[in-house]
Amino acid sequence: MARILICDDEKDIVSALTIYLQAEGYGTVPAYNGREALRILREQEVQLVLLDVMMPEMDGISALSKIRQESNVPVILLTAKSEDTDKVLGLNVGADDYVTKPFNPVELIARVRSQLRRYLQLGGGAAQGDTMKLGGIEIDDKKKTVTRDGEPVSLTPREYDILKFLMQHPGEVFSPSELYRRVWNEEPYGAESTVAVHIRHLREKLEITPAQPRYIKAVWGQGYKMEN
Asked: What are the structural domains, with CATH classification, of the chain?
């Protein structure tokens, strides 16, 4: 059974999320600020984090930055409608997804399931596939590992999915909306900025000079492609 860390300074929200998630069979662990969430992650095994942005002591963006120094556990941000800048910043720091308050329980559970499916496949090595190589980048989809010029690269589950998809279609150009639809398996609402943040993050990890990418290239007015 997957365990989910719920971190929000509003206890009513934590209680509501606990009810929704436990009804779906998930285990839950509560936290009420970023520092407490970090402590729990270091002490307990957790497969996903629901993380509020605006919290006392340590906000969600600061906590996320520290989480990413230690773990690739999926993180879904809980944001208010007015926090668009924080959504983009969170994705840039390493969030895998976000849900806007007041959230729809059905949407929330769907996003949780999607992230857990990817993460557990990465951890368990159960997904099938072969080794793919493009230039100095290599994916072993059975082991769920990525290397660049023989050196291991640590990616989040979402970054891995994007890279794998692009490497499966070398030279093909995908618009942000199409890339979002194919990788996220959702309708591409707000896709352009979300995809751009993940592409930038991938370039920072894979490219020697991210501003002049060798592998992940933008085609002006059309989208992105992967080439050697």
From this structure: 3-124 (3.40.50.2300), 131-226 (1.10.10.10)
pLDDT, residue 20, reads 95
Q: Which H or E run contains 140? A: strand 137-140
Query: What torsion, rounded to 10 degrees, do the Cα atoms 120, 156, 32, 46 define?
Result: 30
d(CA 105, CA 150): 43
pTM given for the model: 0.62
- Alpha-carbon distance of 218 to 129, in angstroms, equals 27
Q: Tell me, what DSSP letter sits at residue 82?
A: T
> What DSSP letter does each residue of 1-18 carry, written as one string?
--EEEEE-S-HHHHHHHH
Q: How far is CA 50 from CA 25, 96, 135, in A?
A: 16, 10, 37
What is the tens place of the pLDDT at every residue in 7-40?
Answer: 999 999 999 999 999 999 999 999 999 999 999 9
Mean pLDDT per block of 10 residues along the chain (228 residues) reads 92 95 95 95 92 90 90 89 73 86 89 84 46 87 87 91 90 90 79 88 93 91 88
**Alpha carbon distance 87, 93 (integer Å):** 10
Strands 75-80 and 3-7: unpaired
Per-residue pLDDT tens for 94-114? 888 888 888 889 989 998 998
